[in-house]
Hints:
This protein has helices spanning 3-15, 23-53, and strands at residues 90-99, 109-121, 126-135, 138-149, 154-161, 171-176, 179-188, 191-203, 206-214, 222-231, 262-271, 281-293, 298-307, 310-321, 326-333, 343-348, 351-360, 363-372, 378-386, 394-403. By secondary structure, it is mainly β. α1 runs antiparallel to α2. The longest helix has 31 residues, at 23-53. It is globular, with a radius of gyration of 28 Å.
Amino acid sequence: MSTRTCRQVVELRQSTLRPGIHPSTIDKLIKEAVMKALKHIRTYLLMCTLVVILQPVSGFAQQNSDPSKPKLRPSPTQRDGEHDFDFNFGTWKTHVSRLVHPLTGSKQWVEYDGTSVVSKVWNGRASLFELDVSGPAGHIEGVGLRLYNPETHQWSLNWANSSDGVINKPMIGEFKDGRGEFFDQEEFNGRMILARNGFSEITPNSSRFEQAFSDDGGKTWEINWVMRQEPSAEKIAASKIKLQPTSSGLDHAQHDFDFHVGNWKTHLKRRLHPLTGSNTWVEYEGTTVVRKVWDGRANLVELTADGPAGHFEGLSLRLYNPASHQWSLNFANANDGTLTQPTIGEFKNGRGEFFDQETLNGRGIFVRFVISDITPTSCRFEQSFSDDGGKTWEVNWIATDTRVEDASGKAR
């Protein structure tokens, strides 16, 4: 009951003390006031329920449900850091020093030399970092996906090594006074520690990156990785990197996504309210660009589309795990710059199926992503949700790609 209604009831009760007003009349007026209050409360609760039901879907198909809503702008005390990593674009001669046994008191370091290539994504609001270095201790090949969150004005650094194709826990942070610092908590040798990444000594022709661990809550830090970058005149192509065949022979699954490398015209359909019984769909037209990483053992997908429901911009980093012979699909939306839970799976008989478990409207569901109808010039992508343990699936996302041809009629 509202404060105003309570005040009215009190006043009505007090009025019984006044001559000329019968008590039954007062009781009738009080009853009418209470019923009005209950009516308002029911309306309010109904509106709250609708707000919850109409929340946008999370996961691969997430996109801005209100394109007309203005984007958040940094306050006077918050700087817009979406171009913080512009200094790093290009091809670099790279030297790495690595502490072999961190947090043990050991001082044994090993050295590596090679190249790193940093490519612009989303006009600088994201970037792809490819590292390939070698030394007496072996070979390191990895990829880092850096994503900017326009709401928090922070970056997430997501790293994967080609040896397992698994995205590590993201490091979160920002740049201040020319230095970038990024943190997370992770497990190391069975114990929880703090980890820190730092970018410093940034000039047009060089930069320094270091990683440090702390096992005392950040009171002290031990540096275990230092990387220096200098300009390289040589343009190193990722296709020069080759994976040695496994003991069982050549691993053909590592090239499962080769069919998708290139430029595509994309038609997209999205169900607005999955698992509610609604059959309302919205459609988009756009483009998809897929670039090869690690000679095909990974790839980056950039999707941009527009339609009556608004603008959609996202990316997916697909990574191959040579141990499990499976792929992980890691999606991020430009609205928040955060990687979602990966869907994991493989191709069989020309069809790819990938699964994960997520939360939708407070309930646990299964997610299935299917790639099918693959030809040299077209392919189909479909996402479905299940809230009954996989017995039934409801499709909520369909994308059809058609390969773009250049002026000569050749597929690009």
